[in-house]
Amino acid sequence: MYKKTSLIRMTLALLIVFLLVTNATAQKTMRNTLRIATFNVSLYGKQQGQIRDRLSGREDLQAKRIASIVQTVRPDILLVNELDYQPDSAPAKLLAENYFAVPQDSVTGDEKLWPIEYPHWFSAPSNTGIDSALDLNNDGKLGSGSDAWGYGIYPGQYAMTVYSRYPIDTKSIRTFQNLLWMNLPGAIRPRIPATGQPYYEDATWAKLRLSSKNHIDVPIQVGDRVIHVLASHPTPPVFDGPEDRNGARNHDEIQFWNHYLDADDTARTWLVDDDGRAGPLDADASFVVIGDLNADPIDGSGRREAIIRLLNHPRTRDVHQSKTADFGRNGRMRVDYVLPSRDLDVVDSGVFWPDDSDPQSTWIKASDHRLVWIEVKR
């Protein structure tokens, strides 16, 4: 009798999940739209492997809150910033399977949120935590997180993953992890204000990578259309000295996308990806520039020229101008972006930021950033 009851309960549970997923899919099909989002989830550890271990179960509170937000907004394409990278993509896979695809508790507690499955994802390798064997912060020591190609206390920290309900053209993905900073046209070489001398000596400057994490171009096949997800996570323009090395790098990491969108054939002399393919994005390509760019066009202490140019680029459309992050004493800023190409027909957009009186506001404790999304016609 016990076994029969358990079997009935299991069957009913599976039926409920099936109906929820079917209902969610049907509603999405009726809308005939595509929702694209970015979310800096602040899901990193104090040592390598910690996030993988946390996500191996299904009870991590931060991950459950992240999944609740994702299951509520339901993006078809989602960039997650600050999720560990491992060569086997374990953290990305575990977050998708153990949290996104598992119904989370609703705020009422009486119902479950609809699970969302991402059968396709790309976890991008990152410069974070990879030791440069150079003294990049000029403290006379080697091997600290500040001496990595991108700040991090272990390899893969603060990395990013693109999740998609639609197929990713994996053979056409481009990454620019190894692109040299000095090769960017007009690169801002940090200098010591008191002397005017370069902060980095020539031998070091010749080796520095532009990306603090990576710059990636992930083509996704949505019906007959290919949409390029142009994702990055530039270094914050702070945590440095009067030489403003992080401010300069943040500016130039954003400036990379301006060059990538200019579709100028002269870029073939320097704009070379990690597989040796040269040149910018095709002039007629559909895309979204997406991610935590760590730059507010109005507030903050960063260099604003590159982000302002990107927002006003002839190929981009700035559709949502709200603040996207809460940095406590430093206030709220707009640093997270989903900037579509002008050929994409945007029908809606938003930032998931419930009022304090809304029970859903407990979910946003997962991160100091908010999920930002747009919706376009398919």
Range of strand content: 15-25%
Strand order of the largest sheet: 3-4-2-1-13-12
The separation of the N and C termini measures 51 Å
Domains (count) = 2
The mean pLDDT is 93
Looking at the structure, the CATH topology of the largest domain is Deoxyribonuclease I, Chain A
Provide the descriptors you would attach to this structure in a database record.
6-stranded mixed β-sheet; alpha+beta; globular; single chain; 7 helices; 378 residues
What is the strand and helix layout of this fold?
Blueprint: H1 2-31, E1 33-43, H2 50-55, H3 61-73, E2 77-83, H4 90-100, E3 120-124, E4 160-164, E5 174-175, H5 202-205, E6 215-222, E7 225-232, H6 245-262, E8 286-292, H7 305-311, E9 325-326, E10 332-333, E11 336-340, E12 346-351, E13 372-377
Parallel strand pairs: 1-2, 7-8
Antiparallel strand pairs: 1-13, 2-4, 3-4, 5-6, 6-7, 8-11, 9-10, 12-13
Structural features, described:
- The chain has seven helices and 13 strands.
- It is of the alpha+beta class.
- It folds into two domains: 1-31; 32-377, 4-Layer Sandwich (Deoxyribonuclease I, Chain A), CATH 3.60.10.
- The chain has a six-stranded mixed beta sheet with strand order 3-4-2-1-13-12, covered by helices on one side.
- A hairpin with a 5-residue loop joins β9 and β10 (332-333).
- α6 packs parallel to α7 (305-311).
- It is globular, with a radius of gyration of 21 Å.
- The N and C termini lie far apart (51 Å).
- Mean pLDDT is 93; it is low at 1-5, 10-23 and 25-29.
